[in-house]
Amino acid sequence: MNRLKRWYTDKYCVLLLAVMTVSAAHAQQTPAFTSIGLQPTVAYLKYQGRSARMVRLLFHGGNSYAPAMAYMTFNGLYDSIPLTAAEKGISVFELPLPGAPVQHETQLYVKLTSGGREYTARCMVAPAPEWKVYLLPHSHVDIGYTNVQEKVMKLHMNNIDEAIRIAERTQNYPPDARYKWNTEAFWVVDHYLAAADETKKKAFWEAVKKGWIIIDGAYANINTSVTDSRQLMQMFYTAVKTAKDHGLDITTMFQGDVPGASWGLASQSGITGIRYFWGAPNASDRIGQSPGWRDRPFYWQSPGQQKMLYWQSEPYSIGYTLKGSKIPNFFTVEDPVPYYTGHPSENFLNPYLFSYLAALDKKKFPYNMTIMTWAMSDNAPIDPELPEAVKAWNERYTSPRLVITSVKQFFTDFEAAYADKIPVVSGDYTEFWTDGIASAARETGFNRNASETLQQADAVWALRGKADYPATAIDTIWNNILLFNEHTWGAYNSISNPDDPKAVSQWGYKQSFALKGHTQSAAMLTLATGGDAIANAIDVYNTIGEDRTELVLVSAAQSTAGDLVKDSNGKKVPSQRLSTGELAILVQHIAPYAKQRFTILAGKAYSNTKSVVSNTTLQNDLYKITLNAATGTIEKLERSGIQHNLADSGGLNRYSYLPGDSLQSIAYAGPATITIKEKGPLVVSVLVSAVAPGANALNTEITLVAGVDRVQIINTIDKKAITKKEGVHFGFPFNVADAQVRYSIPWGSINVEADQLQYANRNWYTVQHWVDVSNKDYGVIWSTPDAPLFEVGAQTTADLTGGLYDSPKWISFTEQHPAIYSWVMNNLWHTNFRHAQEGPTTFRYYLTVHHGYDAYAANQQGLANHRPLIAAPASGPATESLPFSIQSKSVYVESLKPAADGKGVIVWLVNAAPVETSVSFRANNTTAKLRLTATNMLEEYKQSLDNTLTLPAKGVMMIRVENK
Description:
Mean pLDDT: 95
Oligomer: single chain
Radius of gyration: 32 Å
Number of helices: 15
Largest sheet: 9 strands, antiparallel
Number of strands: 54
């Protein structure tokens, strides 16, 4: 525990190492001083009715005990000030300089007389503005980490009650010292309200409306690069909706601990209403080069020209370092409570704040206001003495003036003062802490797929026009999925003591979000497709906005009637009985957001195409795949119409294992055994079994389907539980000369490097639906539904162990390179994440070779790979579809759902093109007329729209479509 406590303290001290902590009281008397020094500050004292620039008089070699007199010569003025005797001694005295603030650098000369001796010192005093520092009281919300989640929740709920009492107590204080409490994560408020009786709820909302309790938009501190588009929007839905129900608007978010954030936050800001984003990341732990953005606010402009005002402040841990570490906290007390020291001004911002502001001034910081947090630690009780500390500070200093604040108050004041001076910046702030999700690869895959399944359930509900859409239940599922992407994965000792019952319990709580999301989304899809079943028939649903030809699988139990399949017009459909007993059916040209019915009959499977297979070769009408007989990797990837082998040396889908996470010790799978599994004519596949370091077994199935434009690879690792540091990858070195690497993020896509902010993560990336590696003539779309982390060009995550503060291992530039490495498993963290994982985990990959890059096609292919056609027991009419169609060459549908109030369908549109593009809506029934309305996250009616509308370049829009 002592070692961990040192780590936790060091974690927050990086920026404070040079700051002197001064105490006027000592257990034993120190020697008397031997000399003096002067330390200029940016501060101004309230002194004799004026604002006097302050310089700190430092006593070296000991303390000052006897009476003394300080004589000052400054800017042509002279003054003196007495220092009274101090029984316990003083180490610092704050000198008020004579005269008005200087306009240029000026020398100060001080002579101190004490005990019959004279001491002198000089320093240069530069001009300094008068500062306003906004101080945001909160407790960083980790859902777990410091203790089991139930205790964490109780602590944060108690903080709300305590905050209301303190705010009420301080209402007669000067306005800047009146208490406010920032709840940080709406997860706390959600649970507080659920547990409260009506009287308590009323008191809570009264406190919110008085400005005592502050609600921001984010449900929790989320890894936003991991969330897909719908999850990213859901991150704000519960808070914004709940506040709106009480007549309040939320426009702000606070993100603590997590370094970096998805550009998608800016893209969706016009829909969510979240226009202000304050980030206060971790001080040092695996934060890469992100400190480069500290105190450099900017309007974060999305690809579609939406703007969000962003400010990354100093780390959220300043309060812990200065005070929280010196009072009872979770390291020393099982159930910490608000702690009164009786000395509010001790262990406060003096002298840290002076040094911090001086550093800003030295960097020519163009503003005279800034913001910082005040939290006693992760999941800490409230600091009940903050109002008194701020009040006393402002009574002593005219500058910096402290203001107890909220995110909204600060951004409102800042924007009002400096809107025309704030720079506009574009680019993805690629996150750093997403690497930890690969410590639980199975659950990460479950959660990614649960999100896609839930969106498919929404789409099925909409295209069938089913009544009684369960909006509330679906919101609950979304929050479970979202909370698995919350940045807390386990206990502070999850690595050092993983068998601690609390550590085990915390992981179980976290894991439950993924398991519940997985089960609940599947159940919701079953409910959407359900009805009175029709024997020996299945319905196939297309849940994306593109015509598709794909394979569906029907279980042996559902297909006992035979192997012959016909569509609703009685036409034979290609099918094949697989070695697993399942019946494979080729569904051809199913329309967007529609269903087709197929009947299973006695008889031989029909085939009008042919795929062939040998031990090392698979071929259909589009692709020829050649495997290396020794390794089982793909050594040739060839597609008709493109005269290139897109597999580079080393082979595609190559397993590599890094013991100790060291490239020097890298090991590969092999030798491989290859056997034919499916022999065609519709489906051909081979099984590759290989000895794999770090695993009990590695099995791969590579599949081609006649008429389907993709290669399917399914890898299953039976992982050994290894607690030593390790990394597992699948390599895909593509042979694409002069390649550009692009990939999908929430609400859009970016070019690696070119579309990233400076100081963002470049060691690894987090993909949503696709990565595209292409030149002007040809390329490949690579999709990974289960494993979101990848590297470009090399395994740039090797040796990334420990905290890595200011480490040269963080790269600052990504060279364009056609090799993609899927980073599927690791245990590199020293806290929070899992120490080991074991058992079977499946990783699927899809490859589609194409001619020149097409952003629209890449997005549609990615959606198809993540949202496969759904085969369900037949029910209802033989054909069903949306009552309207959507036409555009560049605008795609990211997602859609029934409106929560039952009036129409909600559609999210994204323009993939770099120019403004039109999209048209047409009623399928020629006698019907459509009503289109722009809407927002709460599905409110905004402006009316024409049936043909224009989206700005790379723009995002949310629309309600109804029949008139």
